[in-house]
C-alpha cells in the first residue's frame, strides 16, 4: 500500500487524549448556556429539546443561512426577515450565521488574512446578541468547531445559547493560508468536541458536502466516511452529532435515499440540524432557480413527513449563485418552501419507500466496508485508532483521493489510473461530467490546441467545481496542467511559476476576496519579474469601502488586465492567445 501521508505536524507527538482533555471539565464548569429568545418562547433549554417536541407535534422546521459583513446590518436584516415572514403567515425556526473566515483563527493571527464577506463578531456583546434579536434559534458552523479557534468559538457560542455548532468536516478541508496552526487546530478541535459533550441537548453539526464529501466520487464511500466522523465524535470524544448534506445533491430522490441512510446510522437518535439546499443547479437565471428550490425543498419535506428527524428544510434564495441575497429574496424563498411543505403531505403516502429502503441497505453495507478498510489501513500505518487526534490528523494528511483509491468499495479500472468505478456516483461527479461535456461540445478543434502549453489552475477557497471543469478542458486540449487545488496562496502560485515556467494562471474564487487576491498576485508577479497572465472566474465579488454587502468587482479586475470572461467555452482560445502574444 503506497499511501503518501503529507504530514503538517507529527501527530505521534500529540499528548495522550487524557492530557489533551484534562481541562475540559474545568472549562465546562465556568459555562452557562445562554437562554435565547427562541428558548424562552418555546419553554426549552436546547434546540434538541425543541426539535423533539416539534417532531411529536408534526411541525417541520425551516432554516436560512445569513450573515452580512457587519453586526448592525445582520441584526437589522434578521429582524426584518422574521417580522416579514410572520406578517405574511410564514415562519422561520433557525438562522445559520455565515461567519467570516478570519473568525476561524485566533485574534492575534487575523491580520494575516484578508477579510471576506461573512459576519465578524468583534465583541462579547455581539456574541451574546446572536439569540436576542428575534425568537429564531442561532446556529453556528462556518469557521467554528474544526478551525484553529475551535475551542474559543465554542465557548462563546454556548454562552450565547447556540446549542448546535459545527463543522466537523471543516477540520479536513477549510484552510487559512498563511496561518499554519495545524497542531494547535487539532488540539483545540478535540477539546471543543469534548466540551460540547458535557452539556445535555447540544448537537455537533457536520455538513458532509463541506468536507471530503465534495471530493469523494462515490456516495457509498461518503456513507462510510460519515461512520468515521461519528466514531470520532461520539465514540472517542463523547459528544452527540448529526449530519447535514444537500449542497451537492441535485437528484431529489437521491436526497431522500441519502437522508434515510444517514438516519439509520443515528443510533443515539440525535435530532438533526438542517438539510442544505441544492446549489449546484443554481445559475444566473433566477426564474429557473425557483424550480431548483421547489425540487429540493419538496423532497426534503416529503422525507420529514415520512421519517421526522428534526432537520429543518432550508430555503436558498434564487440569487445565491450570483451575489449575497437581499432580505426580501430570503423571504420570497421561504414562501415558496411553505407551499412545498404543504403539498408534501399529499405525496409522502405514494412514495416507493421499500425501494428507497433497499437502496439504503446498499449504501450502509458498502459504507461499512469502506469504514472498516480505513480503520484497518490506519492501524497498519501505525496510527493509534483510539487516539482521536491521531486519527483526525492522519485522515486529513492522507486526503480523500487516496482514501477512496486504497480503501474504496468500487472496482478498480486500469484506464482510470487506479481509480474505482463508483457504486453510486455522487451528483457532483455526474453534473461535472455533464457540464464538461456541454462545454467541450461547443469548443471546435480542441484536440491538441494547447499541446505542451503549461497552465496553473487553483482555487482560493473550498469550492473547486469550476477549477475541475477548467482543468478537464485544458487537459483535453493537451495542456500540461499544474493543479494547486484549494485555498491556494499567491506565494504558492509564484513559486509554481518559477518551477514550471508556466505563463497562464487560471483561478476560481467564491469567497469574496477576488479583487484583493488579484491585486496581491499581480504585486507578487511584479516583485518576482514574472510575466504570466491571469484568468479569473467564479463569483467575482468583494466588500468595498467598508460596505456590508459584497458587490461585483469584475470591471475593476478587468482594469488590471486580467481576463474575467467567466466562460469555459472560450478558455482554450484565451490560453492559446496568452502563449501567442
Shape: globular
CATH topology of the largest domain: TIM Barrel
Helix fraction, binned, reads: 40-55%
Q: Report the average pLDDT across residues.
A: 94
Protein name: Methylmalonyl-CoA mutase, C-terminal domain/subunit (Cobalamin-binding)
Organism: Maledivibacter halophilus
GO molecular function: cobalamin binding; metal ion binding
Domain B12-binding: 450-581
Q: What can you see in these coordinates?
A:
By secondary structure, the chain is of the alpha/beta class. It folds into two domains: 11-354, TIM Barrel (Alpha-Beta Barrel), CATH 3.20.20.240; 442-580, Cobalamin-binding domain (Rossmann fold, 3-Layer(aba) Sandwich), CATH 3.40.50.280. Helices cover 46% and strands 10% of the residues. It has helices at residues 17-20, 24-29, 37-42, 47-57, 71-87, 124-128, 150-159, 170-173, 182-196, 219-236, 252-264, 286-306, 327-347, 353-380, 388-398, 400-407, 427-441, 465-476, 490-500, 514-527, 554-558, 571-580, and strands spanning 62-66, 94-97, 137-140, 164-166, 203-207, 241-244, 274-275, 312-314, 454-459, 480-483, 504-509, 533-538, 541-542, 551-552. The strands form four sheets. Strands 3-2-1-8-7 form a five-stranded parallel sheet. Helix 19 (490-500) crosses helix 20 (514-527). It is globular. It starts with 16 loop residues before the first helix and ends with a helix. The model has no long low-confidence stretch (mean pLDDT 94).
